[in-house]
Specification:
single chain, 305 residues, mainly beta, four-stranded antiparallel β-sheet, globular
Length: 305
């Protein structure tokens, strides 16, 4: 029935707003699920603690574990681009896969520092990975990585986002930085003061950026450089917002205490949705024009079609 509804949306070209959520069949058991991505063609990959990796090809209804080369290391990020998936985690480990099923470890240049965020920047024609101790690295192919000066000092970088014309990285102490090429980074005033920023997203044209973080804070920017807080109108109260994604109809954000919300394309008005997760913390979201996926602690995955 859900698949039929999905087909109706596609046929009528109606707005997709992730308002109704259901729980998927997850193989993670009680292991935290930390990150999720998709290839845009119906395959989804989720990663979590203890090196677990799972895939889904049926609209995120059911998931199956695949062989992981991470030997129990926690995985914090997975991304897709240029025909490959890349996953990273603790002890500086990083791996690539062409199909999400078979993974190969690579030398990351992070040493023992955990990798917390990964993105493919098509405008810059490279991959960017970020993590603890202000470390940031770039790669042309996802195989060979080179450390860059991040401008974060030793401050943790939680995530990195690419719009059509700009890369934005954010982390602890309210720090946020931009780059047009992935190799030279400039710190910006974020309006988060010293609050942690967990994630950044943007619209498809790179004319509206959204940053989310601790204490329910959300900030917007027309260019990634000048930021304005919209708190307390985020609807998250004082709950941390861990992840934000975008589709053509607006934004999806989620975080602590199982809270999940959608907004208009301007990201100024947010509406809480029933996640069904109770107080289970949500760690990451994937949002496209046809599906929303959120992954959480205790092995839980929810989806909206």
């Amino acid at each position: 029935m859900l698949i039929s509804s999905h087909a109706i949306y596609a046929t009528l070209d109606a707005p997709f707003i992730a308002s109704g959520w259901q729980e998927a069949v997850s193989p993670f058991e009680t292991t935290n699920v930390n990150s999720v991505t998709g290839d845009g063609e119906g395959k989804y990959v989720a990663v979590g603690s203890s090196g677990k990796i799972a895939t889904s090809v049926n609209s995120a209804l059911t998931w199956g574990l695949v062989a992981s080369p991470f030997s129990g290391s926690n995985l914090y990020s997975v991304a897709y681009g240029d025909g490959i998936f890349i996953a990273g985690g603790s002890n500086g480990k990083i791996a690539t896969s062409s199909d999400g099923e078979t993974w190969t470890l690579r030398a990351s240049s992070f040493g023992a520092s955990p990798i917390l965020g990964i993105v493919r920047s098509d405008p810059a024609s490279l991959w960017v990975a970020v993590g603890a101790a202000g470390k940031l690295a770039t790669s042309i192919d996802g195989i060979e990585w080179t450390q860059r000066a991040s401008s974060f000092g030793v401050t943790f970088i939680n995530n990195v986002h690419s719009s059509p014309n700009l890369l934005v990285a954010a982390g602890f102490d309210g720090k946020i930085a931009t780059s047009t090429n992935g190799t030279t980074w400039t710190q910006r005033s974020s309006s988060f003061v010293f609050s942690t920023i967990f994630d950044v997203s943007s619209n498809s044209t790179g004319t509206e950026y959204v940053a989310v973080g601790d204490s329910g804070k959300i900030a917007t920017s027309p260019n990634g450089t000048n930021w304005t807080q919209i708190f307390p109108t985020s609807s998250f109260g004082s709950s941390s917002i861990k992840s934000v994604g975008n589709n053509t109809d607006g934004y999806l954000a989620a975080g602590s205490a199982g809270k999940i919300a959608t907004s208009s394309p301007q990201a100024t008005s947010w509406k809480q949705r029933a996640s069904g997760l109770g107080l289970t913390n949500i760690n990451d979201v994937y949002y496209s024009d046809t599906i929303g996926i959120a992954v959480a602690n205790s092995g839980r995955i929810i989806y909206s079609l």
